Amino acid sequence: MTGDDSREEPTANESGTPVPDGGAAGADDVALDPWGSSSVSDYRKLFEEFGIEEFDEVLEEVPNPHYLMRRGVIFGHRDYRPVAEALQNDEPAAVLSGFMPTGDPHIGHKLVFDEIIWHQQQGADAYGLIADLEANSARGMSWEEIDEHARDYLLSLLALGFDPEEGTLYRQSENRELQDLSFELGAEANFSEFQAIYGFDGETDVSHMQSVVTQMADILYPQLEEPKPTVIPVGPDQDPHVRLARDLAERMRFFKVSEAYASFELEPAERALVATFYDDLDPADFDDDTLRCTHVADALAETPLADLETDADTLSSVLTKLEEAGMEPVRPRTRFSDRRATEDAFDALIDAIEGEKRVYENHIDAFEIDRAAAEALAREIEVDNGGYGFQPPSSIYHRFMTGLTGGKMSSSNPASHISLLDDPEDGYDKVKAATTGGRETAEEQREKGGKADECPVYELYAYLLAGDDDEFAKEVYDECVGGERLCGGCKEQAAELMRKFLADHQEKRDEVEDLLEETDIELESPRRR
Ligand code: TRP
Ligand code: SF4
Question: Phi then psi for 259, rounded to 5 degrees?
Answer without folding.
Answer: -110, 145
